[in-house]
Amino acid sequence: MERRAFLKLAGATAAGLAATACSAAPPAQAPSSAPGTSLPPSTDVTPPSGPPDWAALRNKVSLLLPGDSGYDSAKRVFNPAFDGFKPAAIAKCAKPEDVQAAVSIAARRVPIAARSGGHSYAGYSVPDGGLMIDLGGMSSVDVQGEQVVIGAGAKLKDVYAALGGAGRCLPAGSCPSVGIAGLTLGGGIGVLARKYGLTCDHLVSAQVVTADGKLRTASADSEPELFWALRGGGGGNFGVVTSFTFRTDPAPSAVSVFSLRFPAGSANDVVAEWQRWLPEAPPELWANVVLSGGSTVGVRISGCYVGDSASLGRLLDQVGGTRTVKQLDYLGAMKYFSGSENRQSFVASSRILEEPVEPAKLTSVLKGRQGMDLLVDGLGGAVADIAPDATAFWHRKAIGSVQIYSQADVSNRSAATKSVAEVVSGLGLGGGYVNYIDPALPDWMTAYYGGNVARLKQVAKTYDPDKVFGFAQAVTRD
Known about the structure:
Keywords: FAD, Flavoprotein, Oxidoreductase, Signal. It comes from Amycolatopsis roodepoortensis. Residues 1-24 form the signal peptide. Residues 82-251 form the FAD-binding PCMH-type domain. Residues 25-52 are annotated as: Disordered. By secondary structure, the chain is an alpha+beta fold. It has 2 domains: 3-22 and 253-450, 3-Layer(aba) Sandwich (Vanillyl-alcohol Oxidase, Chain A, domain 3), CATH 3.40.462; 137-251 and 452-462, Uridine Diphospho-n-acetylenolpyruvylglucosamine Reductase, domain 3 (2-Layer Sandwich). It has helices spanning 3-14, 54-58, 71-74, 96-106, 156-165, 180-185, 193-196, 224-230, 267-280, 309-316, 330-336, 360-363, 413-427, 444-449, 453-463, and strands spanning 62-64, 89-92, 112-115, 131-134, 141-144, 147-151, 168-169, 203-209, 215-219, 240-247, 249-250, 255-261, 285-292, 298-306, 322-328, 346-353, 372-378, 400-407. Strands 15-12-14-13-17-18-16 form a 7-stranded antiparallel β-sheet, sandwiched between helices. Strands 5-6-10-8-9 form a 5-stranded antiparallel β-sheet. A 4-stranded mixed β-sheet has the order 1-2-4-3. It is globular and about 65 Å long.
C-alpha cells in the first residue's frame, strides 16, 4: 500500500472528508530440465569493449542522448532526489522489438534498466551512465473477458479506469502513477490483498525480453522457473517485461472505505488492538495502522471492506475511534485511496511484521522524529493462502509490512537517511518488501526473498549469466 495515499487521506479526513488461489510450486529444479525452457548460452568471456553503437540503435528506436531536446524531462522519475542521475541514453520503446534492439546493442557494454512508473525508491530505474529503457509507450490496457493484457508501461490510474469500466477487478496498489510492472514484479501489496491476494498472484503470463535479446513467454507451461521468479522476485531482475496477462475477478459492487482517528497518547493501545483485530477479521476487511513521529506519537487506522457500510460498521465497533465511512463502488474506492501524482522527495525503507509485537517496539522509535511515519499495512487472508515458495514473494505468513517513510529534500536528505536507518535498526524486526527497496537495508537479499534466495539466484544464472541487468541490489548468480 502506498504511503502517500494514506498521508493524504489522513489530512483530508481530519478536515472532515466525506467522499472521497494457487497451489504450491513443485520443488526447485534446474531450469534446464523444465519443460518449455529454451536457455540462453552462458558467455563467460571478456565483455565487448567500447560504448554501444547509439547511432545504430537510433535507427531502430526513438533514442534520446544527453543534450537532446526532451532528454532532461524524459529521465525524471517520481523522487527528485535522483534528478542528478544521467543515463548515457534513453530508449523510448513502443513495442517488444524496440526493447529487443536496445538490449541486444547495449548488453554487456553499459548498465541497462527498465523504467515503467519510475517509483524505484533507490532510483534504480535511472541507470547513471547506462541505458534507460523507457516503457511508457507500451501502456495499453486490453480487457479480454475474465483476463486483461496490460503493457508494462501502464500506470495504475489507467489500469483501474479500464477494469472498472468493464466491471472487472485486479488487486493492486494505490498511487495512481505507479507502474504495473514494478508493482507486480515485487509482489503487489494493496488494499484488496486480504480478499483477492497480491497482484502477482493473478499473473497468467508475461512477455519478457531476456539478456540474450530474445522475447519469451513466461507462464506455468512456458519458462516456468522464470514465471515463478517474476511473481515477487523484484523489478529489474531476469529481463525486461513488455506485457502482462492477468486473471481478473468480478468487480465488487460495494467497497466501504473508512478512517479512524484516536486521541493523543493512545498509540500503544491502538497498535495492540489492531494486531488482535485484523488477523481475526474476515478477509473482506483490510486495514493499516499509521504511526506519526513527534513529541507525541500520533496514530490512525485506515482501510476498506469489500461489502456494505452497515457490515463494516459492526467490525469497526470492535476498535472504536472517531470514524469516517463511505460506501463506494470498486473504481470509486480505488480513486479514494489515490495519492498525489506530484513528484515527492522522501527516504524510505521497510521491515516485515511476522507476528504481533509489543506495541512500544513500534512507537518508541518515533519519539521526537517529526516528519517520519510508520505505515503498517495488513496482510493475511488470501495472501497467506499461498505457500511462501509457490511464488518468489516470501512473506506469505506475515501479518503486515512496515514502511518507514520520512520526508526529505536537498537540505535534510542526509539527516533523513540517517534517521530512517536508525529506526530500521531500532525496530528489531527482520524481513523487507522489495518494492520499498533500500540500498542500506542490512542483509537485503534475505530480507526481501527469505528462503527463496537460492532458487532466485539459479534463475538469474540461467537467464542472465553475465549480469546484463545487474545493479546494486540485483539478484545475480553470485
